[in-house]
């Protein structure tokens, strides 16, 4: 069957799109194309400067829609005993269409904070759905069900889902930080304006501070999950996912610190978004596979 591969390609494609979107923002190219859906009135503008990043982002986004429509068609053709999967695909298509319209609104209304934050949050939500579908069609899981107890699988499913939810909220806060220009509202680390708890006098400082708080909670939770998994009888793929989550969260924290200390240099800021997305996908996959096992 081809639809499992299509879902996996969709996940990788979405990660690439999120990275490009981060580069667009970090290079201040978000309004390089002042109109939408065209760019300077054409679909084939001169690909130079900020237009290169912004229009490339749009082209990759269009490719993602086509890729997921193909995945949906494959599910319709190849899967008849799981109608929920086709319905989930339709939800995914709806998410992508709404995401596209919101992306257009960010340009038309010149980057309003809440619209831009919603644009990135919807992207993370679609990534979660695509990862869930990819993990739900992973073909080795039936073999694993005899290798771990039901209680261990249920606990792992729950805690990985909580971790994924925490990462999603932390990423949404990060989107708010980014789009309200709050990235250096706390210019020091580990303190914020020289204090453990800074004066929460505006949305920039408040969102930045709680973004850090959620980051610490997520780090503790992910490490806790990995240590717990190491003490259980589970298939190797669960250990690999748990420890790769630890590696991702450590890299993510380091990139967050680097983003502040380098005054939002393009490389750490762009990588900060993609690592957060990869961590979210990792935990969604871990939870979904545990549920199937």
What does this structure look like?
The model has no long low-confidence stretch (mean pLDDT 91). The longest helix has 30 residues, at 150-179. This protein is 74% helix and 0% strand. The protein contains nine helices and no strands. The two termini are 21 Å apart. The protein has 293 residues and is an all-alpha fold. The chain has helices spanning 3-26, 50-78, 83-108, 113-136, 141-144, 150-179, 203-230, 236-261, 266-292.
| Computed CA radius of gyration, to the nearest angstrom | 20 Å
Helix content: over 70%
Average of pLDDT: 91
Shape: flat
Care to count the β-strands?
Answer: 0
Name the beta content range. under 5%
End-to-end gap: 21 Å
Count of individual helical segments: 9
Regions with pLDDT < 50 over 5+ consecutive residues? none
Order of helices and strands: HHHHHHHHH
* Main beta sheet strand tally, sense and closure: none
Q: Which structural class is indicated by helix and strand composition?
A: mainly alpha
Quick description:
This protein is an all-alpha fold. It has nine helices and no strands.
Fill in the keyword field for this structure.
single chain
Topology summary:
Blueprint (H helix, E strand, L loop, with lengths): L2 H24 L23 H29 L4 H26 L4 H24 L4 H4 L5 H30 L23 H28 L5 H26 L4 H27 L1
């Amino acid at each position: 069957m081809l639809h499992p591969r299509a879902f996996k390609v969709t996940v990788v494609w979405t990660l690439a799109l999120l990275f490009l979107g981060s580069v667009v923002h970090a290079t201040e190219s978000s309004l390089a194309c002042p109109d939408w859906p065209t760019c300077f009135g054409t679909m084939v503008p001169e690909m130079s400067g900020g237009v290169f990043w912004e229009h490339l982002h749009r082209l990759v986004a269009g490719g993602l829609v086509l890729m997921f429509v193909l995945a949906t068609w494959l599910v319709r053709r190849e899967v008849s005993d799981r109608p929920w999967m086709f319905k989930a695909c339709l939800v995914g298509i709806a998410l992508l269409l709404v995401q596209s319209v919101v992306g257009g609104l960010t340009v038309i209304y010149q980057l309003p904070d809440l619209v831009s934050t919603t644009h990135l949050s919807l992207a993370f939500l679609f990534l979660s759905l695509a990862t869930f579908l990819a993990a739900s069609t992973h073909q080795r899981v039936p073999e694993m069900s005899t290798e771990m107890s039901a209680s261990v699988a249920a606990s792992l499913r729950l805690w990985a889902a909580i971790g994924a939810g925490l990462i999603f909220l932390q990423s949404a806060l990060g989107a708010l930080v980014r789009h309200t220009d709050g990235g250096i509202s706390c210019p020091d680390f580990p303190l914020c304006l020289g204090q453990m708890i800074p004066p929460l006098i505006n949305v920039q400082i408040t969102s930045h501070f709680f973004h850090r708080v959620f980051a610490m909670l997520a780090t503790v939770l992910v490490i806790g999950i990995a240590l717990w998994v190491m003490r259980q009888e589970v298939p190797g793929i669960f250990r690999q996912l748990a420890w790769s989550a630890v590696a991702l969260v450590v890299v993510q924290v380091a990139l967050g610190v680097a983003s502040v200390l380098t005054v939002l240099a393009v490389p750490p800021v762009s990588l900060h978004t993609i690592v957060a997305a990869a961590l979210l996908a990792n935990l969604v996959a871990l939870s979904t596979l545990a549920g199937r096992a």
